[in-house]
């Protein structure tokens, strides 16, 4: 559903902008931690959130950026990967899986590059 419908591109762009608190065009660890931890939570919980945020940025961040942050296309790739993983668990034992349309994916990436 994240690949074929153009309205999802706008939703993803808005979600990215919502999460990008410092409005620098990247989801950095600080942006992510702010959404993970409620104000007034103990420092020990912040450490777990920082660890999770740094791991997520390292996994999904811009290749070669050494953990600077996650840009729009990388954010979309992370969501698509989570969606595909959930879909693959829903299939029966036959292992059949629906092929994704790479052209639609490219259009989504180009959309992010132009709009975010």
UniProtKB/TrEMBL annotation:
EF-hand domain span: 7-42
Region annotation Disordered: where it falls in the sequence: 86-116
UniProt biased composition (Acidic residues): 93-107
InterPro entries xref list: EF_Hand_1_Ca_BS, EF_hand_dom
Record's protein name: EF-hand domain-containing protein
GO MF entries: calcium ion binding
Species of provenance: Noctiluca scintillans (Sea sparkle)
Entry coiled-coil feature ranges: none
């Amino acid at each position: 559903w994240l690949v074929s419908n153009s309205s999802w591109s706008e939703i993803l762009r808005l979600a990215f902008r919502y999460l990008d608190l410092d409005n620098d065009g990247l989801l950095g660890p600080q942006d992510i931690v702010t959404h993970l931890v409620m104000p007034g939570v103990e420092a020990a919980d912040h450490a777990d959130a920082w660890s999770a945020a740094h791991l997520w940025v390292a996994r999904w961040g811009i290749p070669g950026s050494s953990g600077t942050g996650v840009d729009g296309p990388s954010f979309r790739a992370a969501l698509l990967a989570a969606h595909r993983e959930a879909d693959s668990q829903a299939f029966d034992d036959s292992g059949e899986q629906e092929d994704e349309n790479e052209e639609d994916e490219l259009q989504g990436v180009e959309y992010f590059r132009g709009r975010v």
